[in-house]
Amino acid sequence: MAAVADGDVHAGLVSVNESVHTSAPLPQVGFNRTMRSGDQHEQRHDGKQAPGNAQEAPAMTSPDFPYPQEGLLLTHFLTVSDVARSRVFYADIFGGQVVLEENPCIVKVANSWIIMNPGGGPTPDKPDIVLRPPEATDPVSTFLNVRVADIATFYANARSKGAEFLTEPLDRKAEIRCYLRDPDGYLIEIGQATGMVKGIFADPSPGSK
Q: Which residues contact 33 (CB under 8 A, 6 or more apart)?
């Protein structure tokens, strides 16, 4: 993980409980979700149609679905303004696998999952909380931290697919890193550990203890 500098606060994609990747069958939960052309529907286990929208999706027994049999795994939720646009971005730029197209959108990226939905007002389980995408004037307090084995290759490939970076990869002593933004303006760090694996770390931020 990058050294904290210039007010950086890191929220990383981390390794998750690999027990989710098992061939053992998982119990069916909720609804069997399917989609017919032009007709989204949600089918109950008893065969009756249930209210609400649904779409084509792998069964919740799929090892690609974030449903651990034990322990926990870590996903990251993003409030987005255009689900389809963000889904394409994370699948394309990060080589993600679309597990669920919407409601919510789930994209598996490496060993974690990005979950996306539009914003909205308070709900019973989060009263007084409003979800919305960031605005350009908002200060940044958290962001995805993506670790790569070869930052030069990732940078070149991502730019060829239309990703816009704030700068080219820069050597920060502990690591080489750069930043890009997703379609809603969420900041994403791309980093490759270099010095830190040899015990060399970035200089402390001014004023830090």
A: 42, 43, 54, 55, 56, 57, 100
